[in-house]
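Exercise 7.
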Amino acid sequence: MKAATTVRAFTLTELLVVIAILVILVLVGLPAFASVLYASNRTVAENALRAGMSAARDAAVRNRVESAAVFFYEPGGRTIIVPCVRVGSVLDVDGAGASVERSVFAPVGVIEPQQLPRGWMVRGYAPSGTLHSNTNRNYWYEPRPGRVHDATEGSWVFPETGFYGVDGGTANDGNNRQTFMVRFEAGTGNVIVSDFGPAVVVSPRPSAVGRVALNRGVNAWQRPDVAENVSLWASRFLARPSGAVPGGVTDIQRRQIIGNESADTVLAGAVSLIALYDEQKLASALGARGLNRVSGSLYLMPDETPPNRVGGSPDLDPQLFPGGLNAANVGRDIDLWLTGQLQRGGRFVESDTVLLVFDTFTGQPREVKP
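Solution. The predicted structure, written as tokens, is:
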């Protein structure tokens, strides 16, 4: 006859010891896991960035047309690199009311844009004298009370492509959309470093509010938002005759529909140096509480209205800075941190930003150290 088997249960003390051991193992493993995940996302971001640049350059070589890799950021979303081609030019006006001819770019419809992992951003370096100022009224990153760049020394600019009122009307809020791009020469794919002034990039706002009715397609030439091929639409629009002739377009209409003032375009200046970085790490280096929950960045959305907010383009979120916001100081610290020169208490603040410069002849990005 078998002896009865006694089943012994765990005591409460033993269970607590096991739980404590598991908690310790998790706490020990979390930093390592987070480090691996961060390194993986960084690699994915850098690979996507290089792929986007390569696709834009290939378009210049293959199609023998000037192309550009244009940087977009949709608030709450991710950084996107859109390969575009030059489709013509438009006679626009600058901040002083003087006529200026701007190149017009539009997306290459057959090439998919490259998307970076969430939280990974790209900024472009605007050299001294290229940003909007009292002596260079080109509208590219005009000074704002809540977002300040140093136009005399040069500054790192953020793709401000989605901080505008999408329902604001075709000829409204366009000045609030601006970004940077890397331009490639037609045929050779060489990086264009000469300053031709900012170009406009067609990027239809996703709204029909404030637009003319289609009227069975009769007004489709005024509606880039319904175009199946934005590049083809832009080429055809720019080819329309000027003046009071059948199918003609006045200079004012042309500027309103495809110039800088249009909300369907983004003003983009050419750069040859960019920075790839993690926005959350930048926020930490600046002493910010975190990121704006709506935009996923340091900046406010157009419909957020804290005290002293002006207009609709991005301002730094003052709620993120517990000691009070000094936009000029924050702008300076951003520039310093991206190049590894920011100091706190006599010590350098860690920065693992990837700085990339573009070879003039091959168009390939090459990492440089500050």
